[in-house]
Amino acid sequence: MAVSELPPTEDELDPKQLPDEPTHDVVFGEITEDGPNYRNVGFMGTIILMMKTQIGLGVLSIPTALDSLGMIPGVICLCIIACICTWSNYIIGTFKLNHREVYGIDDAGALMFGPAGRGVLSVAFCLYWVFVSGSGILGVSIGFNAVSTHGACTAVFSAVAAILGFTLSSVRTLGRITWLAWVGLPCILTAIMIVTIAVGIQDRPAAAPKTDTPWVSDYKLVGNPSFTEGITAVCSLVFAFSGTPGFFAIASEMRDPRKYTPALLVCQAGVTAIYMVIGCVVYYYCGTYVSSPALGSAGGNIKKIAYGFALPGLIVTTTICSHVSPKPE
Predict the structure, then answer these.
(1) Is there a domain that residue 168 lies in?
(2) CA atoms of 150 and 135, how far apart (whole Å)
(3) pLDDT at residue 15 above 70?
(4) Across the chain, where does the E strand assignment appear?
(5) 116 Cβ contact list (under 8 Å, min separation 6)
């Protein structure tokens, strides 16, 4: 009697034949109802997580970057950076489909360069996310200061932000964090839209001189920055896409990784469009008097309202950034 063959594991299947509901994962092992399900991020959840890892503090510095570079060169640089990030993220998805044993960039480093590659990329990846999380904590403390009119020391607000981010990021799976992204993304977008509309209907930005003459924006189509100013502006645009390294983890926890590329294209198209519209509109109306972060460009009252809406989004950004880097392999 012929011996029956064992069914192939998920990593032995062709990517196009992967089951929609995974029961086994090369990284996490058997997926059962008894334990945490690390493969529970759906298509829409993937889009929201991708967008939330990127849309945060970065978008608030885009108008200032356009002020340095000029509107036309700034938009061109933004589009180029978006294309580079989109292609890099596409490679992440195809790499994950072809190497199911990879969870993060450290596993990819080990696959390509051995133990040395794992060590170097692990340290670099963790340090990167530590700094991004620190930036998120700073943003939350600025928000608390704005809403409370500096009701407490900045160090106290920073500690509160760190505790909130650490507590929420201790949730074990991205699937259970997705609902936070559903809350945080609309909040940060609402805050940005409030400021964008406010600078359009006000007679002048908050930092502009108070004179009797009508305000005329001094925006520049083409800037003339120094080398330092130009590099700083480009770095601000790159930082707007700083969530890109987290896409490895998102791809690894998707229920159906075959849908990664469509989710990526929707995310990048939406993020790039938002960055271009918000950056150009705010800079057009504020000119050289644009604030950084841009939420302060429309005056004190609008700043309080905007940061009130933005705080949940900033906290969620800190949460996701703090969650990704220490994930157990």
Answers:
(1) yes
(2) 19
(3) no
(4) 24-25, 29-30
(5) none
Q: What is the pLDDT of residues 48-104, one digit of tens each?
A: 999 988 887 677 789 889 999 999 999 999 999 999 999 999 999 998 888 888 888
Identify the CA nearest to 46 among candidates 244, 327, 259: 259
**156-194 as b/e: b if 16+ CB within 10 A:** ebbebbbebbeebbeeebbbebbebbeebbebbbbbbbb
Peptide bond into 19 cis (omega under 30): no
Q: What angle do CA 292, 76, 53 make, to 5 degrees?
A: 55
| Domains identified in the chain, total number | 1
SS3 25: strand
- Token code pair at residue 151: 């009701």
Structure-token pair, residue 284: 């057009």
Distance of CA 218 to the CA centre of its chain: 31
- Whether residue 149 lies inside any domain: the answer is yes
Contact 9, 28 (CB under 8 A): no
Ramachandran angles phi, psi of 59, nearest 5°: -65, -25
Is 160 inside a domain boundary?
yes
For the full predicted model, state whether its pTM sits above 0.90: no
Q: Report helix angle 105-148 to 154-169, nearest 10.
A: 140
Instruction: Report the relative pairing of strands 29-30 and 24-25 from DSSP bridges.
Output: antiparallel
**Which H, E and C letters describe 284-298, residue by residue?**
HHHHHHCCCCHHHCC
Range of the domain at 263: 39-208+216-324
Q: How far is CA 137 from the centre of its chain?
A: 14
Rounded-to-integer distance, Cα 209 and Cα 105, Å: 49
d(CA 296, CA 146): 9
**Residue 306, SS3?**
helix
Write the single-letter amino acid at 48.
Answer: I
- Can you give the CATH number for the domain in which 124 is found? 1.10.4160.10
pLDDT over threshold 80, residue 26? no
Asked whether residue 292 is assigned to any structural domain, the reply reads yes
β-bridge partners, 29? 25
